[in-house]
Records
---
Amino acid sequence: MLPLGGAAARNKGMALFPRKIGGRYATIARQDNENLYLIYSEDLRTWENGQIILRPRYPWEFFQIGNCGSPIELDEGWLLFTHGVGPVRRYSVGAVLLDKDDPSKVIARTSEPLLRPEPSEREGYVPNVVYTCGALRYDHSILLPYAVSDTYTCFAWIGIGALLAAMNG
């Protein structure tokens, strides 16, 4: 195995796009522990500094945002699930739609989280956390497995049309 190299490879949270974009490999990553970056590579091993595409905007993500797995290609663009960290280190899950040809362009995003820790889900090994490491597309729906307080796993289903309608530009 060969390690990843370059300035962007030193931080965790890199999520590859499932295909090349414009002839290059692409990833979403959190280089500075607060924002999300789009980073390109010519060889899949060297990842240099990227471009900020998402900054915390809403109260539920004010402290930091991160990706929740690789983007999912839709006809409308790239669907990226994100996690936001708000007050009391409360982790919630949201979503963003990126332009299909130029994923540095944000088309829309959720202003409210899709999933947040409910009162019954706030206790456990890591309290106040709902988190996912990826989602699956099935026909016109998304299956979203997620962990609660690092204690147990749940599953959520959402129609792609309903999800896109919940986003604003």
Note: The first helix runs from residue 160 to 165.
---
Amino acid sequence: MTVSLDDIQKAAKLLQGSIEKTPCVNSRVLSQITGAELFLKFENLQFTGSFKDRGALVKLLSLSESERKHGIIAMSAGNHAQAVAYHAQRLRIPATVVMPLFTPNIKVEHTRNFGAEVILHGNDLAEAADYALEISRQQNLSLIHPYDDPKIIAGQGTIALEMLADFADLDALVVPIGGGGLISGVSVAAKSLNPHMKIIGVETNRYPSMKKALAGQRPDCGTFSIAEGIAVKDPGKLTLPIVRKWVDDIVLVDEPEIEEAVLLFLEVEKTVAEGAGAVGLAALLQNKKRFSGQKVGLILSGGNIDMPILSSIIQRGLVRSRRMVKIDVDLRDVPGALARLTGKIGIMGANIIQISHQRTLTHLPIQVAEVELLLQTKGSEHVQQILAQLQQDGFKVKLSEASDAR
């Protein structure tokens, strides 16, 4: 069973008026940063925060009255769960969702708030899927698969129809890959309308399942990725041959580049991207020469990220750009010495976030204190100016090891 352009166009008609037609716009600043002419599709602006609204609704609308009455079950690391729960609630279909144990809390709570029964089971999507399949057989529930279903694939493919309606002359589309539902639908739609367009998939180095499957290899997957929405160990049986036929290449991205992409979306576009939603931008950051000068469409596939994770990304980004640094200063332990140090730092325009003394657990001579300061700065050049000025004023100062590890 496969999916055609006609299937995707029919799905688009079904979705009219029931989901957001999300904006697709040129990002001038990110274009300058990546070297490509970049066009962003903001699927994080769907009601449930991701592109999954599309496929979930198309699938639910295809169910018979009997199937709707019995209810449905889905397995998901988050976005599919929320989309299924929301649209099942709208259509008055009883819904159960199995989610891995370590799914971000925001996705679990949103799914429950949409009226679904949530079962937390398994360490990853594969274990959750096995349990969901077992329950579906026991209770005669219709299984709503997150990616390995022609209705789901057709729904996701409607993104490409909208993007090409706005920008028909794109050279490439860069698309996240988990199980392959999104890139399958997008590639069929895009290539059917523009055979010369390149379709580039993106996976993480920790979960390269589709890339390995295409090479006939088993992936050696990691235990955690910030892009948990595409942390899939096994691509779909339906999606794999579609990807093999329609997708030109798959690139892998590292965790630091994903973090950088999330931060750039926040700073530049003033929009929130989850890890999986940011991997497309991460791919452009990691492969600038490959996409230089091209018109590239990028799907920001979702924005459902836990606040503690987002906070950590922001803090780590500030450290990497040296807008937040720790410095160590050996200071005479006499009255007024600390005031003199902090006064100098204030004059140079840095903000002291945290300060700590160490007099006992140190190898320094008596009457010398080890002072550690966490500073908010304007960046690397400002940090060097601060260090140089303090040294000139007679302070023995250095960047702490944490700030110097970049």
Note: The CA atoms of residues 274 and 304 lie 5 Å apart.
---
Amino acid sequence: MQLCACQFTFPFPRPALMMGIVNVTPDSFSDGGRFLDPAAAVAHAIELVEQGADILDLGGESTRPGARPVGEAEELRRVIPVIEQLAGRVRVPISIDTTKPGVARAALACGASIVNDIAASRSGERMWEVVAAAGAGYVCMHSQGTPTTMQREPCYVDVRTEVDAFFSDRISRLVEAGLRPDQIILDVGIGFGKTLEHTLQLLGGLGDFTRWGRPLLLGVSRKSFIGNLLGAPADKRLPAALACAALAVDAGVQILRTHDVAETLQAVRMTEAITARKK
């Protein structure tokens, strides 16, 4: 198995990849406003690479529960200057976290290599056409509803089965739209239209999704399910996120999306060293 994203290729098996989060937003749930200034965002991204980030995930629109949509022009204003500066300064793939084909196209044109699409193009195939034309990597994430509505009583008969069926449908449609399988990354979408119980079921069943033969991405960093279970505020959730990351890697997850790259990298490398010696 390998992942191809424009000029970048990652063969698997290999040590898990760290995807460092750079929110260029005023309203993200854990660091909104800290990196809205392009210079601050660039400096933070470079720091994450120095800590060990293999991928940088840059977003200009908050996807926290209840977040209000941002217009395309504003999203472009936030992210493009940062991508332009980073593309000449870092040697890791830049991922654009967006649901808008126009933003994805502009980001890829100025140096991004991956599109992280939380909507998985529910509104049509324009996003897929953009990704296919660029030869970019594509994160296909499961969600129920939109950021504005997704946590209003999400409902499943069997969340693992339904997420698995979603991946089956999307992989087929992505290939039909012109993507190669080696461009596709799968994400179960923790926090996107799931209750605490749904989330725990998905985390307990991550190994089920390795059957698709595609890299699995997991994003649990500072998310509200940790607070709901343990009563911890956003800035006190790192230990629980590290536990999730370690268990995820043991289950077969290959990419960890995190605010805390150095700490997650250390936890994951220790997990890999131990699991490699299982009998």
Note: The mean pLDDT is 91.
---
Amino acid sequence: MKNLIAADIAAAMDNASWIRRMFEAGAALRAERGPENVFDFSLGNPDVPPPPKAREALIALADDATRPCGLGYMPNAGLPAFREGLAAKLAAEQGVPALRAGHVVATVGAAGALVAFFRAVIEPGDEVLVPAPYFVEYGFYCGHFGGRLTPVPMRGPDFALDPEALLARVTPRTRAILLNSPNNPTGAVYPADRLRALAAAVDRLNAARERPIYLLADEPYRIFAFEGAEVPPFLCLSPWAVVLGSFSKSLSLAGERVGYVAVNPALEGAERLIAALTLTNRTLGYVNAPILGQRLALALLGERVDLEPYAARREAMAAVLAEAGLRFAKPRGAFYFFPEAPGRDDLAFCQALLRHGVIAVPGRGFGMAGYIRLCSAVDRAVIDRSLPAFRAAVAECR
């Protein structure tokens, strides 16, 4: 067969995302056994409805769409009203009162924000440090532009942030340190003191560097913190801090693809970086974030999804895993669990789970073999009914 596609994309296809691979296995299993006999914890798709106000906002948008250019092009950085409202929200949330609309770009989800950012700052051969385990798509986001993702394992049962381990891996080609808190897949919430320590060290390093290291916070799960856990503000920690996020989870608008990137106003040259992000947002083919999504998010800026179902499911999943005899750190945020696989063989355990109707994702798909990821954003009844299957799979592997 002729070479129809690029070699790196061909390799990526051959090593397809474990998340998607297991999700597709679940679809086949449902067709074979019936959906009531399959317990799919593979995909992080928020299923709690958007806030009630969304219906009213959508009706208003339907009327607004009929005016001239109601669905037309807009400034590449986003609707001015949306940028203004978002900047006000982030200024309070991130402890940066000086943040204004001109420091924010609306993007096609948090993923689009990361891709646009990496296109703006990455040169071939640059590296991006990330605590492991990590969301696997990060490697593609920077790799498209010749960057290299460098995972740095976080140790201990709760995968706590280790600033020293990250700093020890800094090289002259390090261009960014990418953090994700609350974390996918572990549910870890990084505490303020460790974030401050990392930011202070990066500030010291940047004082002597021609090409600075950016501190990136990918925050789509910011509101998902439980049992008193607090997600500290990040943008205020350093002039080099950049916050990226979306409304996919916080408003259950995953399909609307509305995200953002915010730059610290204290950064010397912040306007130039925003101009670069606006350019890459356009020239990568996004052009602008969806207009209906921006208007809907603007109408719901003061809202959030009901967290109670997520909290209840978290408790139910913890009970099931404990009763099944699995070892895990109870997540403090997001809606994932990352238990240890019996015998530290994540592939064998996922296969055993599959035989009993449970769909999980091997930890190696997140850069940490020996564990599995389970998404608890599923119906409570599915979690409760899965206990016998988990028990049987654990017994089989032991």
Note: The domain at 7-50+306-397 is CATH 3.90.1150.10 (Aspartate Aminotransferase, domain 1).
